[in-house]
Amino acid sequence: ERGAAGSATAVAHPNIALIKYWGKRDEGLVLPWTSSLSMTLDVFPTTTRVRLESGSGHDTVALNGVPATGETLRRVTAFLQLVRERAGSGRRAVVETHNTVPTGAGLASSASGFAALAVAAAAVYGLGLDAGGLSRLARRGSGSASRSVFGGFAVWHAGADTGTAAEADLGSYAEPVPAADLDPALVVAVVDAGPKTVSSREAMRRTVDTSPLFGPWAVSGKDDLAEMRAALRRGDIDAVGEIAERNALGMHATMLAARPAVRYLSPATVTVLDSVLRLRRDGIAAYATMDAGPNVKVLCRRADAERVAGAVRDAVPGGTVLVAGPGPGARLLGEGA
Ligand code: PMV
């Protein structure tokens, strides 16, 4: 093993997609059907420490101090196995991760989680990856994690769907997106912090396999992405918001048309969407996006964020509402013995 340290600790933040990733063309390699674009947040960091133990045996994983089991343990172990194969290492790992966001609630816990794990594991096993390489690696843990390697706005390239598997893997990574100074905020409305009933993995599979709306949405997403990039370049928050909102509603439409339907949106979601419409009617630039859960993220100007948060709080009195801004990319906090 090249320069393997005893332990490494990394921190990463979640990201929220303004152009969504929904559907894999290769489940094993986590290659998406479409390119996506996101904003990394400055809230809800995940901090992950990976320590190598001598000898083989099982990896152990603790999430907020609680030993992970089942699907979480299986996913983390499979990810570490990939890193070990690349490093030519057989050493087992002890992983301790601290998440400040509810897990599995459509709040991008897997994005910050696998971005932090990728950075820490790559360091401790001595993979010597650049940012693009870390993004490709993080992608294998969770697609959206590829984008959390970068701060601010990031685009995840789907990559060409011709060529060998190795070429496809190389072509699918995230990178920063040039943007004029938008001074954006995302008002996050947590209307339900409980774990989702259908995993995004299963929901994507069902959508791709059965939804008659998936193809058209994926096609229109190409235009959405091009228009989004242009809107970010000129700093046009209304255009950014409009494109993000229609792309997200379209994604949910594909799921609603799946057989059987996948519905993450709840009555509270719709109540928040109504409050966003009222804000727009009052002349405030506010636009909504939703992921694999009922929670709503409202894009607006920083200067309007408190007003937007107030309106959303009034709409869902039981919910938790917080204001996020653009956050930093994943980074190594330290390496130790
Ligand atoms: O990275 P995953 O497998 O958790 O998928 C996330 C998909 C969405 O959050 C719904 C959209 C996205 O692009 O982040």
From TrEMBL:
Q: Which GO terms describe its biological process?
A: isopentenyl diphosphate biosynthetic process, mevalonate pathway
Q: Which Gene3D superfamilies match?
A: 3.30.230.10, GHMP kinase, C-terminal domain
The answer to whether the entry has keyword Hydrolase is: no
The segment(s) forming the Mvd1 C-terminal domain are: 187-317
Q: Which InterPro entries match?
A: GHMP_kinase_C_sf (IPR036554), Mev_decarb (IPR005935), Mev_diP_decarb (IPR029765), MVD-like_N (IPR053859), Mvd1_C (IPR041431), Ribosomal_Su5_D2-typ_SF (IPR020568), Ribsml_uS5_D2-typ_fold_subgr (IPR014721)
**Residue stretches making up the Diphosphomevalonate decarboxylase-like N-terminal domain:** 12-162
- Coiled coil spans: none
Alphabetically sorted, this entry's keywords are: ATP-binding, Lipid biosynthesis, Lipid metabolism, Lyase, Nucleotide-binding
Which EC numbers characterise this protein's activity in its record?
4.1.1.33
Task: Please give the superkingdom of this protein's source.
Answer: Bacteria
Which GO MF terms are attached to this record?
A: ATP binding; diphosphomevalonate decarboxylase activity
Identify the GO cellular component terms for this protein.
cytosol
Q: Which family does it belong to?
A: Belongs to the diphosphomevalonate decarboxylase family.
Q: What is this protein called?
A: diphosphomevalonate decarboxylase
Source species of the chain? Streptomyces qinzhouensis
Originating gene: mvaD
